[in-house]
Amino acid sequence: MTSISTLLPTYATINLTALAHNLSCITRYLSPGCTVMAIVKANAYGHGAIETAQALVRQGVERFAVASLDEGIALRQAGLSASIVVLGALFDEQVSDLIAHRLTPVVSDGRILPALAKAVRSYPTPYPIHLKVETGMGRLGLSPENLLGLLDNPLLRNPLQVEGLMTHLADADGKDSTFTERQLDTFNATLKQVQQRGITLPLVHTANSAAIVRFPDAHFSLVRPGIMLYGYHTLPDTVPAPDLRPVLSLHTTIAQLRTIPQGRTVSYNGTFVATRPTRIAVLPIGYADGYSRRLSHRGSVLIQGRRAPIVGLVCMDMIMVDVTDLAPVQVGETVTLIGEQREESIWADEVADWMGTIPYEVLCGIGSRVPRLYKPA
């Protein structure tokens, strides 16, 4: 039988049982009536948006959010019939495609309303949109004053309908809760004024992953978990962490072995110089696959359940590791870059620490030429 390493020397495995477990952890924080809008932007944080969304639908999730029009269209073309909200910026030229694929826009600038209204004027019922109020992120969104002024626009009664109101929290995972509480105060004041105008808002959402855990008052009718779905969090140490399970593992295969003498260099620019006779394993993965060049001389991988350090610069398509201190290894052996082997593990948050970043970047960076293999729930 041909081994998986022969067919796919570098691949990621996606554990859908872990995904279901994480969803269950999230829902335990929620009060009755509050539901999940799953964030599957950026290819579901590198996990594969289509397969991830389909798995979440099987777990009962009915609403999804993406960052861009093309991400939403890809889900529709894959057969996803659930609600899909487009969180990112929207341009006039994109409106016809957005409407054709029944995607729900988040309006962060009132200038888009005429184009939206024109595109849906022939619809038998008002078309749903969400409004985003800027409360402190300093990014997309209407100021509270502009949002309240926008509500007088007749286009929001027909042919458009305000289905949802949202904001984005900038510091929900910060050590000090003051800024988040200030944002929520601003949002609640705006929400109250909207409701006083007689506008019914079926969907109100502010809570990202960290806020789901830390700020129950931010739950409203929907929460927007992203990184927690995939098994990670960025909560401060003072906050009890949820029992999450990483969903993605990343593997490759030993392609070649060589022993180099003391004084010999490895990889570009000779930044690694052997201080002893050194056994080197060459692995077919590099920064073109999303394994960052910042891991040069810093990262480690797992071989036979033990850590082997990266030596030399990470190349576009290959890395080299020092296996001198391991038991004899062979070409074709599986190497784990993210995940577990025997009693040892390296997860994306540790890789992120080596890189000086966050696990979001590690996961989102895994390239499209790395195939994803899905383990069913």
In short:
The chain is 27% helix and 24% strand. The chain has 377 residues and is α/β, with parallel strands linked by helices.
Name the descriptors:
Lyase, Ornithine Decarboxylase, Chain A, domain 1; alpha/beta; elongated; 5-stranded mixed sheet; 24% strand; single chain; 12 helices; 8-stranded parallel beta barrel; TIM Barrel; 377 residues
Fold blueprint:
Elements: H1 4-7, E1 11-15, H2 16-27, E2 35-39, H3 41-46, H4 49-58, E3 63-66, H5 69-77, E4 83-86, H6 95-100, E5 104-107, H7 113-120, E6 127-132, H8 144-150, E7 160-166, H9 178-196, E8 203-207, H10 209-214, E9 222-223, E10 248-253, E11 256-260, E12 265-266, E13 272-273, E14 278-283, E15 300-303, E16 306-311, E17 319-322, E18 334-341, E19 344-346, H11 348-355, H12 359-364, E20 372-375
Arithmetic mean pLDDT: 96
The main pleated sheet reads as: 8 strands, parallel, barrel
Rg from C-alpha positions?
A: 24 Å
CATH class of the largest domain: Alpha Beta
Structure in words:
By secondary structure, this protein is of the alpha/beta class. It folds into two domains: 31-230, TIM Barrel; 248-375, Lyase, Ornithine Decarboxylase, Chain A, domain 1. The protein is built from twelve helices and 20 strands. The chain has helices at residues 4-7, 16-27, 41-46, 49-58, 69-77, 95-100, 113-120, 144-150, 178-196, 209-214, 348-355, 359-364; strands at residues 11-15, 35-39, 63-66, 83-86, 104-107, 127-132, 160-166, 203-207, 222-223, 248-253, 256-260, 265-266, 272-273, 278-283, 300-303, 306-311, 319-322, 334-341, 344-346, 372-375. An eight-stranded parallel barrel has the order 2-3-4-5-6-7-8-9. A five-stranded mixed beta sheet has the order 19-18-10-1-20. It has a five-stranded antiparallel beta sheet with strand order 11-14-17-16-15, with no helix packed on it. Helix 10 (209-214) links the parallel strand 8 and strand 9 (222-223). It is elongated and about 80 Å long. It starts with a helix and ends with a strand. The mean pLDDT is 96.
